[in-house]
Amino acid sequence: QGGDVEWDALFSGAEILTNMALYSRLHTISARTPSPLSRVRFAQAVARNVMGGVVGENLDQFVTTTPRSDIRWLDGLRSLLASYQSVGYAIGTIGEGKYGQLDELEWREDGRASVQVFFYDFALIDAAQALAGEAQNDLAAALLPTQVIMALLRRSNIEVESEDFYIENTKNGFRPDGLVIQLNIQASNPSDAAQL
To answer: What is the average pLDDT value for the chain, to the nearest integer?
Structure first.
């Protein structure tokens, strides 16, 4: 009756407890990081830790200095999505059907493209959505895969801008259960074009 609950107990339990624990933790962090810039830095630090440990162990093999001519970074993104799925974080796909896929010809010729990454069965959506609903999107970003994806692309000399969209696949009113990340990418290295 009453008393403290160990964090490990919350994270090893049901998904709803994990979401509640993360929401509470990030809400506490929000009170201690009132500046939007400090919250963005926090989300980026979380992404660096994820890249360095949980999913980033095997991604070095996909890094390239010539992203237009060597698109193994795209295989790295696919590997990252497979890692997310294997740990139960979410099911991710690059594009859906013919929409949102990388146009490789446009990418190789222009060094610019747009890609959409879809996530379904996203385990942390409730906590992220609750924070976003409280205008705390910069902290919700710590729970989303966006910063990790951007870090992966930047390691391959790709400049990236992103926007997150919550989506729902059910018919029970708007209760998001998925996420679409719009990625606008551009090769950082103009000399890469000469190597095509």
So the answer is: 81
